[in-house]
Specification:
Order of helices and strands: EHEEEHEHEHEEEEHEH
Number of helices: 6
Bound molecules: manganese (II) ion
CATH architecture: 3-Layer(aba) Sandwich
CATH superfamily: Survival protein SurE-like phosphatase/nucleotidase
Helix content: 25-40%
Shape: globular
Strand order of the largest sheet: 3-4-2-1-5-6-7-11-8
Distance between the termini: 52 Å
Oligomer: single chain
């Protein structure tokens, strides 16, 4: 199995090294990741300037750094390495739960894999006061890959590890709340500026990703690329059936 590793924290992130080590037990690993942090860049791709792919030293791994976004890394990685089976992205320094999946660069790398017809798995863990204890997560990352990799119908999975996992759960994405808030402040010259912050939210719904991680479970959410709102589509069509064409 050919496993391409990417992330959005940058190629020298400790989370990426942990993931690459675990992935090495499952197949051939190559790392293609951003040269600097690209968190919250979402699914941006770079088309207005050329990209570079530079070899870098990262323990025993075949590793390449890119001056681009997480999605760029996957596009480049898959174009330069034939027959990639799966892209693993992470382990992100910070959870990617609920609506934050929309901004996540970690998830975008996995999504880019799915867009290319490959499989993608995004892996994240919350940052509290200290850096996450990646060593302690290794057995859980192994278990998750053992569970997910053989299931070929899982083309896109969002995985979140609580700091001290106690079990693994399949979940839905929590979409009830939004955790981005704009906080105004002043710069040293008295001009107003703004911080977009992540704020704590109320209790999440049972069965969701946020709920699972709060309970100490590893959350696995299968996602899809098709964003069509089937209910809204059916409603819209029932209210206003599509116009007949001239030949009808
Ligand atoms: Mn990140």
């Amino acid at each position: 199995m050919r496993i391409l590793i990417a992330n959005d924290d940058g190629i020298y992130s400790p989370g990426l090294a942990t993931l690459a080590k675990v992935a090495g037990q499952f197949g051939e690993v190559r790392i293609v990741a951003p040269d600097v942090e690209q968190s919250s860049m979402g699914h941006a791709i770079t088309h207005s300037r050329p990209l570079s792919l530079r070899r870098t030293k990262l323990e025993e791994f075949d590793a390449w750094r890119v001056n681009g976004t997480p999605a760029d890394c996957v596009a480049l990685g898959a174009s330069q390495w034939e027959n990639v089976d799966v892209v693993l992205s992470g382990i992100n320094l910070g959870a990617n739960l609920g609506n934050s999946t929309w901004h996540s660069g970690t998830l975008a790398a996995a999504k880019q894999a799915a867009l290319l017809g490959l499989r993608g798995v995004a892996l994240s863990t919350p940052v509290t006061e200290d850096q996450p204890d990646f060593k302690a997560l290794v057995p859980w990352v192994t278990r998750v890959l053992e569970l997910v990799l053989p299931q070929k119908e899982l083309s896109l999975v969002n995985v979140n590890f609580p700091p001290e996992p106690r079990a693994i759960r399949w979940t839905r994405q929590s979409v009830r709340h939004y955790d981005g808030q704009v906080v105004p402040g002043q710069d040293p010259r008295g001009r107003t500026h703004y911080w977009i912050t992540v704020v704590p939210l109320g209790p999440p719904e049972e069965g969701t990703d946020r709920w699972a991680v709060e309970q100490g479970w590893v959350s696995l959410t299968p996602l899809r690329l098709d964003l069509t709102d089937e209910k809204a589509l059916a409603h819209a069509v029932s209210k206003a059936p599509p116009d007949r064409t001239a030949d009808d």
